Amino acid sequence: MANNTAEHPPGNSVAEGNHDGDFGVTVMDLRELMELRSAEGVSKIQDTHGDVQGLCRRLKTSAIEGLSGNPVDLEKRHTSFGKNFIPPKKAKSFLALVWEALQDVTLIILEIAALISLGLSFYHPPGGDSEACGQVAGGVEDEGEAQAGWIEGAAILFSVAIVVLVTAFNDWSKEKQFRGLQSRIEQEQKFTVIRKGQVIQIPVSEIVVGDIAQIKYGDLLPADGILIQGNDLKIDESSLTGESDHVRKSMEKDPMLLSGTHVMEGSGRMVVSAVGLNSQTGIIFTLLCAGDNEEVKKVKKSKKQGPPENRNKAKTQDGIALEIQPLKSEEATESEEKEEKEEVKPVKKVNVTKKEKSVLQGKLTKLAVQIGKAGLIMSALTVIILILYFVIDTFAVQGQSWTSECTPIYIQYFVKFFIIGVTVLVVAVPEGLPLAVTISLAYSVKKMMKDNNLVRHLDACETMGNATAICSDKTGTLTMNRMTVVQAYVNDTHFKTVPEPDAIKPETLEVMVNSISINSAYTTKILPPEKEGGLPRHVGNKTECALLGMVLQLKRDYQPIRDEVPEEKLYKVYTFNSSRKSMSTVLKNADGGFRMYSKGASEIVLRKCSSILDTQGQPRVFKPKDRDEMVRKVIEPMACDGLRTICVAYRDFPAEAGEPNWENENEILNELTCIVVVGIEDPVRPEVPDAIVKCQRAGITVRMVTGDNINTARAIAIKCGILLPGEDFLCMEGKEFNQQIRNDQGEVEQERLDKVWPKLRVLARSSPTDKHTLVKGIIDSTVLETRQVVAVTGDGTNDGPALKKADVGFAMGIAGTDVAKEASDIILTDDNFSSIVKAVMWGRNVYDSISKFLQFQLTVNVVAVIVAFTGACITQDSPLKAVQMLWVNLIMDTLASLALATEPPCESLLLRKPYGRNKPLISRTMMKNILGHAVYQLTIIFTLLFAGETIFNIDSGRNTPLHAPPSEHYTIVFNVFVMMQLFNEINARKIHGERNVFEGIYKNPIFCSVVLGTFILQIVIVQFGGKPFSCTALTIDQWLWCVFIGVGELLWGQLISAIPTHHLKFLMEAGHGTTKEEIKDEEMAEGADEIDHAEMELRRGQILWFRGLNRIQTQMDVVYTFQTGQAPVPGALRRQPSVVSQHNDSTAAKTLSSPTHVGLSASSSLTNSAGAVPPAAAASSSTAGSEWVSEAS
C-alpha cells in the first residue's frame, strides 16, 4: 500500500489507511446532518466542515479518486458507520404456518367430529349392549370389534394432520422461494462508484460511507449522500415526502441526497454519508419495527376492551405494520380492506382505487364459492336424512323408547352420521384449488427464470396467458440496442457509409470529434471485446456509443480529449431530458468567451441552427427553406431506411458580449452551427419477426410505441412484421393521437379513443403520457366483445406510469432503469421480445393446468358427493367411509394438483386465441367431459353397490351394524372408485377435446411418478389398510377386475370426445369473469365501499403472495403510513392534482402507485371517474416523445 501514497492526494484513504481508523466525524454527526434540508444543510456543512471537500477529508476519501478499496479500510468503515443492509422481516416459522392451515373451517369441523367419535368409542355405558336398545346395537357384542371403535376417529385426525402439513409445507416453500427471488433481485442491483480512480460497479450492499458514487437519470439512490458535482440534477422525493414536484439539487442550494429517492434528470457524483439503518430509509424502518411490538401489545389489549371502532383501527394498523409491504402499492390498500372486512363494523374508508384481482383469481374465487355452497347444502341434507331415517326407524317403526342406558349408543350413531356429512362436505369443497394455483404458479415462475423472465408478482404470469395486446417499446426490445452510425451528411455531402477521415475537411473533423467526445456522458465508453474476435462492448447511453464508435472509425480517439477536459472543467451542462430532446455542454475558452456543443433529435436541433459548415468547412447561412430541403433530401430518406437521425452542432459566445444568462435556455440553444447529421442504425433483433408472427397467430395484437420519428418507426415496424403490406392499419404521431382523442377542454374521451386504438399499430414521437393514456384506454374499453388484457414493455423512467397501469408490465433487465423495474411485474433479464412470447406460453399453460385440475377435481367431486349422498339415504351408511373419502380427497387435491399443475407448456398453446377476461374457466367441452365421466363412474359404482355381491359372489356389505368388520363388497367399491380416478387423471391431461391423451406424457416425470405412487399406495391401503381404512385384502382376480373397470375410463373418454360439443347447447359454462354489466354497475357505485363477498367467504382461498418490490423502496413507502397515522384523513396530505396539472404535472412513476388523492374536489375526480389512477406523466412535460427518450436510460 505504501507505494501508492505518493501518487494520491492527502486525504485519500490509501494514504491514511494505516491509521487507527478514527474518522473526523461520527455516525450521529452524519445522521443529524442528513436530517437537515436545503439551505440548513448547506450552512451546517459550512459551519462544521468548511465545505463538502472538508467533509471528504474527515471521511478520509478523495472526491476525484474515491476510496482505495483496501479491505482493512472498508472493514473499519463497516464497524464505524454500519453496513448498507436493512435486515428483512422475520419469516413466518413453520409452526405459525401450520397454525394458519389449521384455521380452515372444514378441518376444524372434522377435528371436532373425530374427537367426539374418539371420546365415545372409549365410553362403555353399563348395560349398553342390552336388548333394550333394539336392533341398533346388533353386532357390537364382538369385544374385539368394539375395542376398534377408536380407529376411525384417530384415522380422521391423522388425515387432517397430513392435509395441514402439506398445506403448511407449501406455504413455507412458497415463502422461501419468494425470499430467494427477493434476494436475487437485491443482489442483482448494482451501483456505480469510484475506487482508486476507476469507475466500477459494486453490489448495493457493499457501498460504504465515504464512497464516491456516480448518479444518473433513472437511478434509485441506495444510500444517503451529499452532492459533490452535479449537472442539472432533479430528484423525485415523493417516496419520502409525498411531494410530487421534482426537487432541483445543486452544491450551493440543496446538496442533500436521500436513499430511496429517484433521479429523474441529470447526473452527478455524491459522497456517501449514511448507509443501511443509519440512512433516512433505515431510520424509518427502525421506527417501524419498534412500532411493531407496541402495536401487537396494543392490539392484544384492545381486543379485551374498548369500543369496536378503536379495535378495528388497531387491527388495521397492525396489519400494515406487520406486513412491511410497499405501503403505497395497491396490494397494501387491498390488505387494509381485507383487515377491515374481517371486523364486523367497518370504519368509513377513503375511496382508494383497488387493483383488480388477477383474472384467474377472480374466476376461481367465484367458482369455489359456488361449489362450496352446493357442498354445504348436500352435506346438510345427508345428515338430516340419515338422522330422520334413524329416528323414524328406531322409535316409530321398532317402537323403542329412549332410555338413559342407550343414550351413548344413539349419540354414537348421530356422531357417525355427522362425520359422514362432514366428509361429504370435505369432498365437495375443492380446497385443492388454491394449492393447484400455487403449485402451478410457483412451478412456472421457477421455470420462467430459465426463459429469462424474472417474475416479481406471481399472478402476472397467469394474466400474461390472457393477454390480448402488447404495447412494446422499440429501442432495445424489438431492436438490438446496439447502435451504429451508417450514414452521415457533412460538408454538404451525403455519405451512404461512414466516410474516410480524408474525405472530411480537417477543421470540420476537429470540431466534430471534439463535440462528440466532450458533449456526452463521460460514463459512456466503448471498451474492448470480452472475447477474442467479439464486438466491442458499449457501456452507457447507446446513442452516444454509436457517435463515439464513429469517432473511432474516423481513426481518432475520444479519451485523450476527455482527459484534457475533465468533468470538473465543464462550465455548464444541459443534460438530456424528454422535453429538451437534446444535450449541450458549455466550455470556457482561454480568452473569456464560451463554446457550447449540442446534439439531439435532428428535427429539433436543425430548427435552432442558423448556419451550417459548407464544403470548405466554413459556416454558411442556413435558412428555413434550406432546412426544409435538407429534411426532404437527407433526413426523410434516412428515416425511411429505419435510421434514427441525430444532429451535432456548436455555438460560440464571444468574450466581448460578456457572460450570457445560462438560465434562459431558449436564448442559449439558438443560433447554432450544424456540423453533421448522422443516421444511426439499430438493427432489428433477428428473433423478433418470428416472435411477432407467433403473437399474431396466438391472437395477440402487437403495437409499437416509440419516441422515434414516424418514418423510422414505420420502417422498423415493417421489418418486424407489425405492419404488413396491404393492410389498413394506423401509424400516427403523438400530437395527432392527442388531437383525435381529446375534446375541446383537453380531456381524454373514451369514445374518441375507442375509434382510434383498434386500428392503431404504431404510435411515434409519443410522450410517456401518451403511452399511459393508450394503455389505460385499451384496458377500460368495452367496444370489442372480449375485454382487453394489456401487456406493456418499457425501460425508461418515464415508462413507469404505463407499466404500472398495464395488466402486466415488462421491464428490461439490462437497459431498464430502477424506476421501470420498480413499476413492473416481470423483468426480462435478456431484454428480448421473444422472451415475452415464452411468458405468454407459460401463462396459458398455468391457465390450462388449472382447468385440467378443475376438470379432474369436479368429476371426482360430483361422483363422490352423489355416491355418499344416495348411499347414505338408501343404505343409512356411506359406501365410502370418512377415512377413505379423505384419502380420495388427498389424491384428488394434493397429488393431482401436483401432477396436473406441472405439465410443461408446448408450442400448440400459441395456436389458439387468448381467453380474455370474461371467458369461463369451465368451457362446454370440459363440462361435457366432467358430466360424461361422472355418468360412467356413477353407473359402475351403483351397479357394484347394489349388485356387486352377486357379480363377485361375496357377502353384501349393506346394512352392517355399527362396528362391523370391513366387508369385501365395500372394499371393491372403494378400490374401483380410486382406479377410475387414476385413469381419469390421464384423461384430464387434455381439455380441448384432443384424442391422444398420452401425448407428451413422458416429458412430465412428476405426473408419471404421482400416478404410479398413488397406485402403489392404493395397493398398500387395500391389502394392509385393514380397520382404519375399512378395507379387507382382495384377491388377484378382484384386483384385475378393478383395474379393468378403471381402464374403461380411457375408452369411455374416447367415446365422449367423439360427441361434437356444439350440439350440446344445454350444457352450462361455469366460472365466468366479470361481465360488461357488472363493470357498469361497479362504476356507478364507485363511491360506496367495495366489498367482494366472494373474497369474504373464501378468505382462505386467496393466495396472499407478498409483492416482490426491492426492499429499500418498501421502507421508503412506509413513510406514507406515518403521515396517515397522524393525519385526520388518510391521504389528505397528498397534493390534490387539478385536472390541468394532471397533464403537465411532472409526477413520477412513484406517485402513481400511491393511493389516489382523496376525492374532495369535484375537479380532481373528473379524470378519475372510473376509479383509475390519474394519468400522471413522468416526463417533465407532455410534449411529443423523443428520439432518445426510449434509451436515455
Automatic annotation (TrEMBL):
<keyword id="KW-1003">Cell membrane</keyword>
<feature type="transmembrane region" description="Helical">
    <location>
        <begin position="968"/>
        <end position="986"/>
    </location>
</feature>
<keyword id="KW-1133">Transmembrane helix</keyword>
<comment type="subunit">
    <text>Interacts with PDZD11. Interacts with SLC35G1 and STIM1. Interacts with calmodulin.</text>
</comment>
<dbReference type="InterPro" id="IPR044492">
    <property type="entry name" value="P_typ_ATPase_HD_dom"/>
</dbReference>
<keyword id="KW-0479">Metal-binding</keyword>
<feature type="transmembrane region" description="Helical">
    <location>
        <begin position="1038"/>
        <end position="1059"/>
    </location>
</feature>
<feature type="compositionally biased region" description="Polar residues">
    <location>
        <begin position="1138"/>
        <end position="1168"/>
    </location>
</feature>
<dbReference type="InterPro" id="IPR023299">
    <property type="entry name" value="ATPase_P-typ_cyto_dom_N"/>
</dbReference>
<feature type="transmembrane region" description="Helical">
    <location>
        <begin position="376"/>
        <end position="397"/>
    </location>
</feature>
<dbReference type="GO" id="GO:0005524">
    <property type="term" value="F:ATP binding"/>
</dbReference>
<dbReference type="Pfam" id="PF00122">
    <property type="entry name" value="E1-E2_ATPase"/>
</dbReference>
<dbReference type="Pfam" id="PF00690">
    <property type="entry name" value="Cation_ATPase_N"/>
</dbReference>
<feature type="region of interest" description="Disordered">
    <location>
        <begin position="1"/>
        <end position="21"/>
    </location>
</feature>
<keyword id="KW-1278">Translocase</keyword>
<dbReference type="InterPro" id="IPR001757">
    <property type="entry name" value="P_typ_ATPase"/>
</dbReference>
<dbReference type="GO" id="GO:0005886">
    <property type="term" value="C:plasma membrane"/>
</dbReference>
<keyword id="KW-0406">Ion transport</keyword>
<dbReference type="InterPro" id="IPR036412">
    <property type="entry name" value="HAD-like_sf"/>
</dbReference>
<feature type="transmembrane region" description="Helical">
    <location>
        <begin position="930"/>
        <end position="948"/>
    </location>
</feature>
<keyword id="KW-0106">Calcium</keyword>
<dbReference type="Pfam" id="PF12424">
    <property type="entry name" value="ATP_Ca_trans_C"/>
</dbReference>
<keyword id="KW-0109">Calcium transport</keyword>
<dbReference type="InterPro" id="IPR023214">
    <property type="entry name" value="HAD_sf"/>
</dbReference>
<keyword id="KW-0966">Cell projection</keyword>
<keyword id="KW-0472">Membrane</keyword>
<dbReference type="InterPro" id="IPR006068">
    <property type="entry name" value="ATPase_P-typ_cation-transptr_C"/>
</dbReference>
<dbReference type="InterPro" id="IPR059000">
    <property type="entry name" value="ATPase_P-type_domA"/>
</dbReference>
<comment type="function">
    <text>Catalyzes the hydrolysis of ATP coupled with the transport of calcium.</text>
</comment>
<keyword id="KW-0969">Cilium</keyword>
<keyword id="KW-0547">Nucleotide-binding</keyword>
<feature type="region of interest" description="Disordered">
    <location>
        <begin position="1134"/>
        <end position="1193"/>
    </location>
</feature>
<feature type="transmembrane region" description="Helical">
    <location>
        <begin position="1006"/>
        <end position="1026"/>
    </location>
</feature>
<dbReference type="GO" id="GO:0005516">
    <property type="term" value="F:calmodulin binding"/>
</dbReference>
<keyword id="KW-0813">Transport</keyword>
<dbReference type="Pfam" id="PF13246">
    <property type="entry name" value="Cation_ATPase"/>
</dbReference>
<dbReference type="Pfam" id="PF00689">
    <property type="entry name" value="Cation_ATPase_C"/>
</dbReference>
<keyword id="KW-0282">Flagellum</keyword>
<dbReference type="GO" id="GO:0005388">
    <property type="term" value="F:P-type calcium transporter activity"/>
</dbReference>
<feature type="transmembrane region" description="Helical">
    <location>
        <begin position="94"/>
        <end position="120"/>
    </location>
</feature>
<feature type="region of interest" description="Disordered">
    <location>
        <begin position="299"/>
        <end position="318"/>
    </location>
</feature>
<comment type="similarity">
    <text>Belongs to the cation transport ATPase (P-type) (TC 3.A.3) family. Type IIB subfamily.</text>
</comment>
